[in-house]
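sorry for the late reply, my laptop died twice this morning and i had to redo everyting from scratch. anyway the thing you sent over, i finally got around to it. pasting the sequence first so we're on the same page, its 370 residues, then the predicted structure underneath. double check i copied it right bc i was rushing
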Amino acid sequence: MSSVKHRLHALCPYFAMFPHTFVRKYLFAFTGAGDVILDPFSGRGTTLLESLLLDRKALAVDINPVAACVTGAKAHVPALPAIVSRLDELERHCRETNLQSVDEERRALPSFFAHAFHYWTLRELLFIRRHLDWHHSDIDRFIAALALGSLHGEMDKSSSYFSNQMPRTISTKPAYSIRYWREHGLRPKRRRVFEILRNRARLRLQDGRPSHPGIALQADVRKTSRLLESWQGRVQAIITSPPYLNVTNFEEDQWLRLWFLGGPPWPTYGRISKDDRHSSAEGYWRFLSEAWKGVAGLLAKGGFIVCRIGGKRQSLDTLTHGVVATVRSAFPSAELMFGPFASAPVQRQTDNFRPGTTGCSVEADFVFRT
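ok and here's the structure:
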């Protein structure tokens, strides 16, 4: 089961500071087989997948389509033959179809795409983007998650990335990307999309899949209790990592993956959520209070809240004060059992592409019992 865990966790390696080892430690400490686990900020689906692999019931919510797609793919993992069959079907359809409409769509795209992807690669990406019904099909969702993981990355390190040289974790902005490629004389290489996706599917599933599914929703965290009404009072532990204070704009950083899932072909701001990145501490703590209240009805009496959180230009004391106050606004009897455990934030991969950028200044873990 260990190899299953590692391969599926790598389904789409976008930016995160929430490793599976963190989740596993607290699952063993505070929960048992059959317990219900919730992650209201699911991100890459780390908590959900680790819970399923350890025979827990798993619930997950995230408002961002990339997070919803990747977490949903881990919640309902199709059988490998079904995935390969679907990819074969799509490839045959692509070869047999007049791609005039695809070419019209390609020509209408901003110039970034011609610099980012080889001509034939982009045609295949546009075709598969048009035909994947990731909202409703478990198989298509898993294929979409595989595509998101290969959509961009360091082409000099792996031939499994579709794009010109980019970080694999975030999508750099169009103008910056083009300038970077021109300065370094970089051109995209031909990638065979269907072949790469088949190989990725075999790699991710060669040791099997979780024995039972989870529940993953794309929704505002404040609506969680209402959407999961049948799970009221049944959650043993919330294990999560909310967006950090003034650190990452998910919608901007994942704009290319959002495009692949049906969004516009350029970075957007506040289109998916007004809470994507709070620069004001006051607004951030207000949002977090609302988030905890949005899940409060689901947690069982005596349940646990495990939270990894961070922020820019924050001291550990101010971070602790904010976390404790917001948790207690929704769970008045919550006791801080352990923490804060401060850690030095990991160096971001984007530092190699954008030297001198600053990220999280403090990161800490908290454990509450309600």
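Residues 80-96 form the longest helix (17 residues).
thats about all i looked at so far, will dig more tmrw
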